[in-house]
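Hi L.,

As promised, Glycosyltransferase family 4 protein:
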Amino acid sequence: MQKLKVIHVVHDFLFGGIESYLFYLVQAQLQNPALEITILCCQREEKVANPRIKALPVHILYVPIKPFDIGIAKYKRISTIVSGYDIAQLHIFKPLLLIALAQSGSRVVFTVHTAGAVRREQTFYQKLKAQFQVWQLNKQCHGIVNNSRYSQQYWQEKGLRAPNNAVIYNGVQFNLSVESELVYERYPFLRGKFIVGTTSRFINWKRVDYLIRGFAKLAQENQEARLLLVGDGTEMDNLKKLVDELQLNEAVLFTGFQKNVTAYQSIMDVCVFPSVSEPFGLVAIECMHLGKPVVVMQDGGGLTELLSQVEPGHIVEDIHQLSELLLSLSHLPSDNMAHSGKRVAFAEHFNVLNIEKEYFHYYKTIAAYA
């Protein structure tokens, strides 16, 4: 049987949603005997910060491209490499890189990982780049994969009309080995507390400040409540100042960056993700698979899209509603099995083995596209 040859083209294996998406998807695709998978990374191998994709049994090629790199020889090399594949799936927008893929003769699929501009500074250059991106994708792509209906609609409203425009949600390889005790060993004072938490990059549009402000009322009324903030980022200092201003130091714990976030999610009684315009929401699915109640904001984009399908009552409009919901949840008895089971069942739809099947069907459609 002739295999369908697919090459994923990425900038780097950075920590974050795109890397997790690719890490999970490639593992599932390697189990499909009808696929041959390769990754083309546009970074020097020795500069790759996150090594876990490198540890997978997948062929990885490295052709480093610097910002605004116009080295024609590099792009010709990439085009030659990609010409040996049926499908090139691009995960980052770089105009010259897309031209190189289009000239290879392979079918080009662009994966949408971004949407929305609220609370994200948009310079004139970024706005112009978005317009040019739409124009180029329309001309040079055989297909577009969006990770949510929200992302699809966002780019269609900007004029994206490329063919084979599909929604395939991100897949998750669920961690079935949860080491909650490791967290309690490190932070024994958390045991027996009512824990509200999040796992996130601490950047502006993740709006962790909303969570801190929303938690403040709960902390006043429930001395056993604790806020567990797992992550790091450019907003860390501002968030710590806010905690100090609200006199929440005794109730809030910053753990910094953690590799095993599932262990921390597993001890949370409520998981809150207040991001705005989130394209998907991988962490929300991971928490639901643990049976945890998840709370998001009305303008959360893909996060809101997901939660509306399983627990719409946990979508809040503002900090006041967030405070009231947290207070309400803290008064309820331990989450019953019916609710937990519903969340787990919903999350299973996003098992990467199921998502891989959707991608395989999509690839076959693209390969046959005239």
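The mean pLDDT is 92.

Thanks again for sending the construct details.

K.
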